[in-house]
Amino acid sequence: MGKVSNEPQFNTILDEQLSQDSNLSFSDLPDGKYYLKVRAKDKQGLEGYDATHEFNLNARPFAPKVVAPAQAATVREANPELTWTRIERANEYLLELARDVDFKQLLNSRRVPNTAYKIERNLEPGQYFWRLASIDSATDKVQDQEPYTAASSFTYKAKPNMPDISQLKVKVLRNRVYVRTINPPEGLVYEAVLQNEVNKQANVWRATGLNGEFDFLLREYGKQKLLLRLVDADGVAGPDAVHEFNASPP
């Protein structure tokens, strides 16, 4: 059993808690000087002597909470935006970004005046760790007792590149289109979309999971636009490569 007071005589009890183990959790206490009184009780209800401990609480401003990217998330942008919650009494936040959970391989350490920071330089693919501390608006100092949030991690995985269509060939036979190009890189597939520019029709035909050779039924003749993109195993697509061709009636 534990009690907390702001005076050694314990005339005023600010909080009182019971615990079945060696941990006691008290309500949200303001910064200041406190006294803790702890007493053990056995299964029969017999209580021991009090042990008293004096301590100073200097916990504010609290560290903010991470908003995005979420813990262990995968991001696809090379310079993602990091966001977190606003904390009372904090006018700035100290942000650290590293390649290791111990923050020995520190990539960035900066003070940020708001609750978002877009990473300026493009990241290399891999795992990253980041943490935050609040800077007290009154003292302009970083909280010196457990100042940081727990390390949050994210993994940057680049989107697929634009496909190489330098060797792409299109052949139209009767009302069918045959496409041949280089096979996609390992772990990727093609997604293709056909648009009819004359009639301003989008998504006339669409297919995914394609390799370097495929064919499809041509529904209308005229000028056509074939959009080809690479898609990874997570279903994330890269930018389009565009090939235009004419399909004339036989």
Describe this protein's structure.
This protein is mainly beta and about 250 residues long. It has no helices and 19 strands. The strands form five sheets. It has a five-stranded mixed sheet, with no helix packed on it. The mean pLDDT is about 85.
Compressed to H and E, one letter per element, the order equals: EEEEEEEEEEEEEEEEEEE
Task: Please compute the radius of gyration using only Cα atoms.
Answer: 31 Å
Record field, number of beta strands:
19
Count of separate DSSP helical elements: 0
Distance between the ends = 92 Å
Strand content bin: over 45%
SSE-based structural type: mainly beta
Q: Oligomer, anyone? A: single chain
Major β-sheet, in short? 5 strands, mixed
Low-confidence stretches: none
**Rough shape?**
elongated
Q: Largest beta sheet: what is the strand line-up?
A: 6-12-11-8-9
Helix content: under 10%
Mean pLDDT: 86
